Amino acid sequence: MARFFIDRPIFAWVIAILIMLGGTLSILTLPIAQYPSIAPPQISITATYPGASAKAVEDTVTQVIEQQMTGLDGLRYMSSTSESTGTATITLTFDNGTDPDVAQVQVQNKLQLATPSLPVEVQQQGIKVAKSVRNFLMVIGLVSEDG
Description:
The protein is of the alpha+beta class. The protein folds into two domains: 1-31; 42-132, Alpha-Beta Plaits, CATH 3.30.70.1430. The chain is built from five helices and four strands; from the N terminus they run ααβαββααβ. β2 (75-82) and β3 form a beta hairpin. The radius of gyration is 26 Å and the shape is elongated. 17% of the residues are buried. The model has no long low-confidence stretch (mean pLDDT 87).
């Protein structure tokens, strides 16, 4: 059978192109489902304490915010970094199925309770709360235009 296609390369190319076109057309007819949430939702809190050392940022900013964040609904774990540039970053990871918008609102509400305990310089700089995803679990995804 291989000899048949070796002797007729144009025929082999035509068959290969037809198979590729058939595969391309079949993608359009495949059933499409909503992709499940693969990575757990994460909320990132970033605060800046200008001129402070990493130890000072940890003691006066990071620990104060972490203590206030306990008790959030669906909170799985927290990770934090305090840098010598005066930046504190706290990432809160929630259980799968937790609505990221609701989690962000809860974090902002808890953060408002912690704000008076933070240094004045940090309050003046502002504290940023944002949804974040650090994992590249899905690089390519096909999405239906129909919804």
